[in-house]
Amino acid sequence: MIKKLTAYIGEYKKDTWMSPVSVTLEVILEVLLPVLMASVIDHGVEAGDMKYVIRMGAVMLVVAMLSLMAGTMSGVFAARASMGFGRNLRKAMYDNIQDFAFHNIDKFSTAGLVTRMTTDVTNIQNAFQMIIRMLVRAPIMMISALFMCVTISPRLSLIFLAALVFLGCVVAFIVTRAFPIFDELFKGYDRLNASVQENLTGIRVVKAYVREHFENEKFCKATGNLKDLNVRAEKLVVMNQPVMQFTVYTCILLISWFGAKMIVLDGIMTTGQLMSLFTYTMQILMSLMMISMVFVMVTMARSSAERIVEVLDEQSTLTNPEHPLYEVPDGSIIFDHVNFSYSDDEDKCVLQDINIQIHAGETIGIIGGTGSSKSTLVQLIPRLYDVLDGSVRVGGHDVREYDIESLRNEVSMVLQKNVLFSGTILENLRWGNKEATEEECRHACELAQAHEFIENMPEGYHTYIEQGGTNVSGGQKQRLCIARALLKKPKILILDDSTSAVDTKTDSLIRKAFAEEIPDTTRLIIAQRISSVQESDRIIVMEQGQIVGFGTHEELMRDNEIYRDIYELQQKGAGKDE
Fold first, then answer.
1. pLDDT digits (tens, 9 = 90+) for 251-294
2. Is residue 349 classed as helix, strand or coil in its secondary structure?
3. Of 377, 411, 374, whose CA–CA distance to 497 is shortest?
4. Whole-angstrom Cα distance, residue 406 to residue 403?
5. Domains contained in the chain, number
6. What is the mean pLDDT of residues 465-470?
7. What is the pLDDT of residues 314-355, one digit of tens each?
8. What is the 3-state secondary structure (H, E, C) of 511-548?
9. What domain range includes position 126?
10. Of 95, 165, 341, 576, which has the most beta carbons under 10 Å away?
């Protein structure tokens, strides 16, 4: 895991190495200061030699300034390295997520991925900064100060060794108990983000059904759980500070007691040496405090690291073949004994033994009840998922033989859930073709029956669309998405129930425009209304993941009971409406 993450330090390796080098220089200079101070007291103050005091004071000032400069530079290098490391991690995760197949995305929640790219990466970069700075500084400072203490008084140094053993046991206790809590804590962040995201996305539904109180309770439950986990973790972590303070003052008292005896009674220690021991005591114990803080931070970051590596290690289930095809000859489609399951379990197939052949340029209607796997069927064509058994062929070749990008450029899908992005109408339309001129966008909107309502907007095609298209109606959103798909000039156009929010007249005009303007494009139209598909060249009738009818409207009315029942029910409904 560590090797996996450190690979993303990348171009910040120099800063990563310069920070420890600067810290080492800073520590060496800091350790020299107590020695110089002892010399000032023993040979200057007690001897009454003011020139020596001034001279050594100037040396101490220079050493302190150099130490400050080295410390500042180490901070700059550490900050640059950690921020760069965090940037590279986020970019690597984002890039990998972009390559995920739908199957991979289904494994992670949206809230979980957001938490990994924000909170988890922040924890990692904070821990990384502490490791390359504090975890370098603290051991070097502790070892150097211990060495100086042993040099001054081997007997008094035993106090520090006892303190080290005691504090090591305390830190080990905190780390082992805190890690499982932090692991659960980050899952709590996932749940909190999911609650917030769901509420904000569906805020109109929440208000329409007066469910604000319910959403508040759900949010409070998530935050309450997060608070409880934080309190449990902090109860352990806060033990660190008082234990450290207790150890520091205990060591100072013991050194004061035994040091005074060694000066007054034994005469084997000078006042300057005792003063320098106090300074080294603070340096050693502050170093221990730093190490314990780093261990706590690393404990938190360990859970984050595992979650990040989980995303980085996830490989797309859809990959290009070794020698892919880049050209799709035509829009013909063949489903050859296709079985498909979302869970890779043959006993849970949502599509079973699908066998159909669609000619290039045909208009194919697809109709069936809710849950009959109509959307699943068409998602196999641009290879959003791979089949479990059998094959899907486009233009005479298995879709797995194509370069994925080339295949999807020739297959335009208007999904059941229409999505518009924040930006102008033109910017949204150019998702279909970033090089499209305004005139081409206008023509696509005319085909999709969107031109008229766009022209009536205050700024026309430069009108700003809010995130998710919240400032346009459902029917307007559908027509903009159809226009966007048309700009790709695809060989296959799939409309997944994408005219459900428009009236029958507009629906008819859209289908008429398709027939006249893009006759060579294979069109697959999923619909709930038979009126939307009855003029298609052929119609697929689906039930429970199987094709139970395939033919023209007249053939199905004559031979297919399911289709005939749907038609009669809809005709009765239309009669009642009239």
1. 878 888 887 777 656 666 777 777 777 777 777 777 877 777 78
2. coil
3. 374
4. 5
5. 2
6. 80
7. 888 788 888 999 999 999 999 999 999 887 666 778 999 999
8. HHHHHHHCCCCEEEEECCCHHHCCCCCEEEEEECCEEE
9. 12-313
10. 341
**pLDDT recorded at residue 400:** 92
Give the Cα separation of 568 and 565 in Å (integer): 5
Distance of CA 442 to the CA centre of its chain: 36
Looking at 313, 347, 362, the residue that finishes a domain is: 313
406: left (phi over 0), alpha (psi -120 to 50) or beta: alpha
* 29 CB neighbour count, 10 Å cutoff: 19
pLDDT band at residue 506 using 50, 70 and 90 as cut-offs: confident
In 10 A of CB 458, how many CB atoms? Answer: 7
Residue 206 carries which side chain, given as an amino acid letter? V
Strands 492-496 and 464-465: unpaired
> For residue 424, what are the β-bridge partners?
464
Q: What pLDDT shows up at residue 578? A: 47
Segment holding 492, helix H or strand E: strand 492-496
Mean pLDDT of the chain, nearest integer: 84
Q: Closest by alpha carbon to 337, among 347, 324, 352, 322? A: 352
Q: Residue 207 maps to which CATH number?
A: 1.20.1560.10
User: Exposure string (b/e) for 506-530, b if CB count within 10 Å is 16 or more?
Assistant: bbbebbebbeeebeebbbbbbbbbb
Same domain? 61 vs 191: yes
Task: Look at residues 313, 342, 364 and tell me which one is the last residue of a structural domain.
Answer: 313
- Find how far residue 49's CA is from the centre of its chain: 66
Whether the CA torsion 531, 524, 491, 441 is positive or negative: it is: positive
The pLDDT of residue 538: 93
